[in-house]
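Handoff note, outgoing to incoming analyst
You'll be picking up this chain. Sequence as last confirmed:
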Amino acid sequence: MKALALIWGLLFSLPTFAQKQTPLPHGMVYGTKPDTGAMLDAVKLEAFMGKKTRISTTVKGRVLNVTKPKGGWFTIDAGNGKVIAAHFKNYGVNIPANLKGKYIIADGIAAKQFIADDLQHFAGDTATGKKQHVVKTDAKHRLTFEVKGLMVE
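Most recent structure output, in case you need it:
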């Protein structure tokens, strides 16, 4: 009789052990809670920065991909095929992989990292006297974002 009660108890407790991945609740915070007072859309971030190389701001955007959950590495859609590479300042923050496709509000420091043409130093004459062909790119910089706090919208 005791064995039968034990089997029934285990059978009914099995669904509690088989946990499903729950959707992210609205307002879930990772890191510190972001200040939503002066929020900026991620699509407008590059235009807002202008000639500045670093600014402290709060952005709202859609997560394209979670590249590494440990340390909070992810990408944000910046519009027109551009992306913002984002990561947490505090490496101890872990974000879920199912953050992909969700809209978030992130507080931190946006920075432009300038890309030098890899072949720029080959643009002059070579030892044989011929000029090298230099490949020009449209992207002169890429945007990065060091996140202090993130909130799922």
